């Protein structure tokens, strides 16, 4: 787990992170990022954003986006974000983000965004939907962080290249216009990358290889039972290799006895199906309180909307101050 720097005595350090409302939260989001969001609420001034502008690069139906944005807000609150200890808001409720993205784009060479691995991946995965926003996505991400001068960014390992680019962009801005933004530093949990149920690629909403932590127990069970395990273990009596088996690896987060479970696989005392059943039971049990809170929150949409509106309002003066400073430095009248 990454050690967090001590909070400065004078200016409180800010932490910022964003999550796309492009689908239901999955176990990779939680183990890789959301757990740190929750933890950091008590250590820093924490700002969390549901990045609907980013999601527009792949979600093209207005009603779907609106619904998913609401569901992601309810999910984050159910998983432990507390509006008294953090600020939760929707990116498009603070439209200054898109203005700052444009201004930062003017210090960003095209070659920097073209080399981003996520752009290359998306170009291959969705050749018929390569919109311009996919290319400039990391510049908007840099603007999201810079808007609040956040220095700590809790993210999964897949975001490292984007964070490096954010640092380069604020450095380029600071070089041209004078010291303005801190260089953001990413922090990871002990599981920066959770593999998907296919066992091949990172778990991701856009790939659809997820275990959706707040879904109905039947859905979770079916997703866990579909997980690819050790592909070399063909027969029940073959010894397994827990170090390459995603199911065994996930057990580490849902019980103290994971070494015993791994040993069962290694010695073929237990089969993959047994190990998956146990994992499904444990995941369902672990997230049961959050699932209850989620049901409660979705039954009171006004409460969720109120939290999001208050969050965006609370950030208005910070965003206004950043934009005034940036406009002044760049010569905008
Ligand atoms: P997705 O790829 O599922 O759309 P997002 O891009 O919304 O996820 O990511 C939200 C946060 O969750 C980011 O900090 C991201 O790094 C983290 N994250 C996403 N998938 C994983 C994963 N498989 N393992 C670890 N962290 C992840």
Descriptive overview:
It is a single chain. With 333 residues, the protein is mainly alpha-helical. The protein has 2 domains: 14-194 and 301-330, HUPs (Rossmann fold, 3-Layer(aba) Sandwich), CATH 3.40.50.620; 217-286, Orthogonal Bundle (Tyrosyl-Transfer RNA Synthetase), CATH 1.10.240. The protein has helices spanning 27-40, 52-55, 62-78, 96-105, 110-114, 117-125, 132-147, 160-177, 217-225, 246-251, 258-266, 272-286, 288-298, 301-330; strands at residues 14-19, 45-50, 86-90, 152-154, 185-187. The strands form 2 sheets. A 3-stranded parallel beta sheet has the order 1-2-3. It has a two-stranded parallel ribbon with strand order 4-5. Helix 3 packs across helix 13 (288-298) and helix 9 runs antiparallel to helix 12 (272-286). It binds adenosine-5'-diphosphate. Residues 19-20, 22, 28-29, 32-33, 155-156, 158-159, 192-194, 202-206 line the site of adenosine-5'-diphosphate.
């Amino acid at each position: 787990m990454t050690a967090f720097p001590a909070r400065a005595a004078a200016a409180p350090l800010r932490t910022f992170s964003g999550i796309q409302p492009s689908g239901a939260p999955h176990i990779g989001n939680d183990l890789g990022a959301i757990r740190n969001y929750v933890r950091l609420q008590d250590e820093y001034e924490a700002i969390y954003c549901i990045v609907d502008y980013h999601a527009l690069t792949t979600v093209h139906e207005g009603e779907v986006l609106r619904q998913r944005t609401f569901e992601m807000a309810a999910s984050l609150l159910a998983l432990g974000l507390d509006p008294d200890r953090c600020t939760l808001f929707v990116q498009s409720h603070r439209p200054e983000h898109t203005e700052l993205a444009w201004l930062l784009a003017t210090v960003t060479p095209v070659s920097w965004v073209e080399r981003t691995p996520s752009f290359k991946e998306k170009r291959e995965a969705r050749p018929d939907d390569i919109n311009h926003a996919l290319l400039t996505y990391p510049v908007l991400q840099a603007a999201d962080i810079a808007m609040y001068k956040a220095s700590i960014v809790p993210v999964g390992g897949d975001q490292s290249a984007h964070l490096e680019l954010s640092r380069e962009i604020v450095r380029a801005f600071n070089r041209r216009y004078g010291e303005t933004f801190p260089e953001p530093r990413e922090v990871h949990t002990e599981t920066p990358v959770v593999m998907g149920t296919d066992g091949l690629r990172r778990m991701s909403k856009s790939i659809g290889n997820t275990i959706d932590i707040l879904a109905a127990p039947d859905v979770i069970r079916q997703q866990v039972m579909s997980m690819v395990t050790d592909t070399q273990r063909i027969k029940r009596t073959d010894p397994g290799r827990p170090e390459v088996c995603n199911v065994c690896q996930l057990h580490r987060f849902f019980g103290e006895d994971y070494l015993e479970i791994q040993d069962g696989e290694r010695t073929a005392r237990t089969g993959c199906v047994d190990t998956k059943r146990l994992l499904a039971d444990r995941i369902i049990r672990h997230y049961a309180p959050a699932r209850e809170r989620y049901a409660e929150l979705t039954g009171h949409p006004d409460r969720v909307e109120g939290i999001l509106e208050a969050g965006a309002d609370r950030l208005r003066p910070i965003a206004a101050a950043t934009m005034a400073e940036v406009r002044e430095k760049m010569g905008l009248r």
